Every structure is written in C-alpha cells, then in structure tokens.
Amino acid sequence: MRIPSPKPRGHTPLTVLLLAPSVGDDEEIAESVQRALTAAGVRWSALVPDTTAPACYHALVLCGGMGVREFLDVDAATPGTLRADVVEAIRSAHRAGVWIGAPCVALAVVLKALEDEVARGAANRRLVSDGVAVFPDLRVVSTNRPLLGRVRAEREPLIAQFTATLLGESHERRAVGASLMADP
Predict the structure, then answer these.
(1) β-strands 132-135, 140-143 pairing
(2) Which range marks the domain in which residue 162 is found?
(3) For 67, which DSSP code?
(4) Second label for 51, Cα 20 to 30 Å away, from 57, 65, 117, 181?
(5) Coil, helix or strand at residue 96
(6) Whole-prediction pTM value?
C-alpha cells in the first residue's frame, strides 16, 4: 500500500507517520502516542510503511512495547531479522533527515535497521532529560524508561514529554516539509 503524501493548505502543520503494533498493551502505548500527537495539533497517519513516503513527513514514530515483534520477519532464517519494509521505511526517513521517534524497545528496532548506515558509536552520544533521550547524530528521540507495565497515569506524561521533544527536534523540518509537500 502506498502512503499518500500529505498536502497541507495554508499553514503547514507538522505531520507524522506512525508505525504502531496492534496488540494488547502495545496498542495502548500507540493510543497514548496518538493522543499526544493529536493534542499537539499534529496530523498523523498510521499506515503500512512505504519506502519513499517517510521523506514527506516531519517525523517517523515506531511505537514500542512487545508489539515490536510485528516488525520482525518471521520467515527469515536468522531470528531477530527485521521486515524489509520496516527497515526501508526507517532508512528512508534517516536518509531524508527526518527525525525518528522510538519510545521504549522500538529504539532497538531503529538501531538494528540503521546498523549498516551510521558510524559505529553514533548511538553513544545522547542527551538525557527527565525520561527522554535524544540521539542527535542519529536524529532519534526515545524514552529512557520502559513503557511496558506502566499504568496509563504513569505512561501518559512520559509519552507527552517524548512527543514534545520529538516535535521540537522536528520543527525545523517544517519549511523543508512544506516545499516537499507543495502541490506541483
């Protein structure tokens, strides 16, 4: 399935492509992220990844939790192999300079997808503040606390802070994104 490129009119809102697991507690984490994005006035799409579309968005978010197993290729000979479409969506976003949000264990998925694309040790430099970690060399924002097992009242403030940090880092893409998404 091809992801439609957002075509804003007038004021260009930030747009986010959301790759979210659809099971159990992980669905609740995805819903928390969706609520935080909506509260921030961000347009988001939760669709099947496309290898070219992430460049049209201001950020790519992979929701964490145990549902990241949906990002694994179950037919691969090597356990832990990521699905090719997920890898390509992450790499495409990274190559385009799109910030990637990867709360909880989704950070491991992003690091695995980028292992052949980034300099060794790029994930070592991070800025940590109140539950959120920013990896500026990778253009990745994550939580530095697990989300699994947290009740909604504990999870929501952490996700809100994660989302605000991601949107702050992605904000400078607004002008670039507007030119990418303008009608021809």
Answers:
(1) antiparallel
(2) 15-181
(3) G
(4) 65
(5) coil
(6) 0.77
CA-nearest of 44, 52, 26 to 148 is 26
CA 98 from chain centre, in angstroms, equals: 9
Q: Which of 48, 161, 45, 151 is nearest to 103 (CA)?
A: 161
Kindly report the CATH number assigned to the domain that includes residue 149: 3.40.50.880
Structure tokens that stand for 178 in this block: 């507007």
pLDDT in tens, 105-138: 888 899 999 988 887 777 777 788 778 888 888 8
Whether 5 maps to a domain, the answer reads: no
Q: Does any domain span residue 7?
A: no
Q: Report the number of distinct structural domains present in the chain.
A: 1
pLDDT tens track for 50-93: 445 667 788 888 887 777 777 888 777 787 788 888 888 899 88
Query: Has residue 8 been placed in a domain?
Result: no
